Amino acid sequence: MTITGTARAFCRRRSVELINSSMPTGTIxxxxxxxxxxxxxxxxLGLPDKGNSTPRSHVGRPRGLxxxxxxxxxxxxxxxxxxxxxxNDLWTTKRVAEVIxxxxxxxxxxxxxxxxxxxxxxxTSQRPVQQLRDSDDAEIARWLKEDYPEIxxxxxxxxxxxxxxxxSGFMLAPVxxxxxxxxxxxxxxxxxxxxxxxxxxxxxxxxxERRHFGFCFDLSEDNVNFHGDxxxxxxxxxxxxxxxxxxxxxxxxxxxxxRPVQRYLHKHRTIVVELFPSRAPDLNPVDKIWFxxxxxxxxxxxxxxxxxxxxxxxxxxxxxxxxxxVLDSLFNLTKLTLDLNFVPSSDVEVEPWSART
Length: 357
Prior knowledge:
The chain is α/β, with parallel strands linked by helices.
């Protein structure tokens, strides 16, 4: 059926005839149930041709970049923002609009840059991953390729639980996320004590047989960091909850090298300590737990005192203990694996983890 045989074509033809008869545009729009802009567009296009279909008119500014230019833009953005002179590799709509202006001599508003990123390039808004600036990427890659598979092999040979340990702190000052407010009147978060904090130590445990994920934690006294003796108390708590040998992975920070800790580890030979490479906190899955609780569970939370903060943090940790699936997903956010994808040495027979589940 041609467009002259449709209801819209009839409305368009009649509106043009009524406009030519000096009927007001607003009245015509009310009669046909369309906007004044549509009536004006119909008047500009004129009468539809009989027997021929007329394509729908495109209203708005045409796309400023061709398909070839969009492909070039993708390559430019993949180089990172630092390659274009910015101090970090975070892409914002303002920066993308500036890249379009520089390389294609086309003025682009930030809102249109968002359309280019999401609609034409298929990019999404994501939370950036933090990494220490002075971390040794080559050493981390070597540790993942050479040392970590050996750690898994030794742990498997002993039938040991793998335990990751890390420390963090929870402040009375909230982790701020965006909120809506009237223009020029931002919301206010009143903090009781911006320096008040509770130190936390946590351990993600993975059983050797069923590969079950668990979480153990402890909180310090108010405004007190963990030290050698309190770290020993936590290790004893973990040891009592886990039957059999333990392979413990943590960072070589002073509290882990303290004399009380070393005496405890020397006394309990079933705990074998393995060290992460220096300045690589993103390898530790417990660091992902801290990030998850702070940014996903407690954003904008402003407790009136440390007692309320302690109760809320404890509640979130206990809820996490009941969610081994969440712990598994947080472990998968790291570069670690539990699969032994290497040829074992001839003197040690190693069965893949997947075969034991």
